[in-house]
Amino acid sequence: YDDKSEAAMARVLDAIRKWSDMPIAIQLAHAGRKASTYKPWDQQGQIPPDQQGGWQTLAPSAVPYTTGYTLPTALDSAGLDEVRTQFANAAKRAARLGIDLIQIHAAHGYLLHQFLSPLSNQRTDEYGGSLENRARFPLEIFDVVREAFPTEKAISVRISATDWVEGGFNIEEAVAFAKMLEARGVDAIHVSSGGLHPDQKIDVYPGYQVPLARAVKSAVTIPVVAVGLITEAQHAESIVASGDADIIGIARTALYDPRWPWHAAATLGAQVRAASQYLRCQPHTLKNLFKS
């Protein structure tokens, strides 16, 4: 998002590429009304704009995320232009860094999701009201990122396919939005859910978001990513094998077990590439797990 962060990211990428040639993606996001928060492992909640570390948040409409949050400033025409420019510049920085894929975050109650949901978007101009209008700004962001990023490199979009709140963004609208993205040339769509409203009611179980991915996949031809408490290799494999999704995303699973891909490969009889220094650690029963 600026020269300093680009330079910091370059150091991280140089360190990774010293040892690995794996493709690396970056997720570009704007938190909108959910921004200006404490580090969640330090303290929950939002930092007021008049306190150190806080700032005035932005949103489609002047509707706060929840009680105790600052009233966000509704984006005007100049503000929308600035956000477009920021996303385009971030994409250009990613290209300079040699990033292989960009994911645009339009889920989990962040700014682009705030435009999509009628719970947070109460605008009366061309960016509010109908789904076509609510989708307009997220689609414009995709367009500027696509224009700024090399054409041979992929761009995906992450969505929350339902707000889990009555009157909110729902799976039918998510399918329609996915079709809009596909028509504009998105390379993949990542299907998550929730995060927009504190009243969300979610029945959480392993693979609870897979039906959402299945619904989107039935309507588009681009690859669809499924997520949501998919922690076991055989479960992940069954989702792909059944055609419910094309790719499985792991996040908290990988934070909990950074070697999850190795263990999944062992379970499924596949191979992984590893540096030669690791070859001696593979179990004797899995002599073909690693390929150097």
Summed up:
Helices cover about 35% and strands about 10% of the residues. The chain is of the alpha/beta class and about 290 residues long.
Describe the structure.
By secondary structure, this protein is an alpha/beta fold. The protein has 2 domains: 203 residues, Alpha-Beta Barrel (TIM Barrel), CATH 3.20.20.70; 36 residues, no CATH class. 35% of the residues lie in helices and 12% in strands. The protein contains 10 helices and 10 strands. The strands form 3 sheets. It has a 6-stranded parallel sheet with strand order 1-4-5-6-7-8. Helix 2 runs parallel beside helix 5. The radius of gyration is 20 Å and the shape is globular.
Structural descriptors:
6-stranded parallel β-sheet; 292 residues; two-stranded parallel ribbon; alpha/beta; TIM Barrel; 10 strands
Instruction: Give the low-pLDDT segments.
Output: none
Work out the helicity level: 25-40%
What is the class of the largest domain in the CATH system? Alpha Beta
Strand order of the largest sheet: 1-4-5-6-7-8
DSSP strand count: 10
How many helical elements?
Answer: 10
| CATH architectural arrangement of the largest domain | Alpha-Beta Barrel
For this structure, what is the CATH homologous superfamily of the largest domain?
Aldolase class I
